[in-house]
Amino acid sequence: MKFSDARFPVVQNVNAEAVTKGDDLRKNLVTQVSAPVRWIECVQNLLARGVNKAVETGCGKVIAGLCKKIEPQNLSVLNVNS
User: Fold this and answer.
1) Which secondary-structure segment (H or E) carries 39?
2) Which of 14, 16, 69, 71 qualifies as a cystine partner to 32, CB 3.0-4.6 A?
3) Which residues, listed in sequence order, are joined to residue 57 by a DSSP beta bridge?
4) In 10 A of CB 46, how many CB atoms?
């Protein structure tokens, strides 16, 4: 499957780096299936880029809980589950 280049940087769990090239996004997504999740590094990368709000979609609040443990003061997480 061909991936187009992203319009904005995507921080992927496999390497915790911001990626925009479609080929890299596809390759990293395939690798991510069997690689460890680097969530702490992802959150730190987003914070370094000036992100201060995140939106969690789906049931539960796992991502919000993890973000609060990593950065309780500078990152707020909104949850949308319906």
Assistant:
1) helix 39-48
2) 14
3) 80
4) 19
Maximal CA-CA distance, the chain: 40
End-to-end CA distance of the chain: 30
Does residue 63 carry a pLDDT above 90?
A: no
Bridge partners, residue 77, by sequence: 54
pTM: 0.81
Residue 21 tokens read as 């090239």
28-46 per-position pLDDT tens digit: 999 999 999 999 999 999 9
Instruction: Give the CA count within 13 Å in the CB-facing half-sphere of 66.
Output: 15
CA–CA dist 73, 82 (Å, integer) = 26
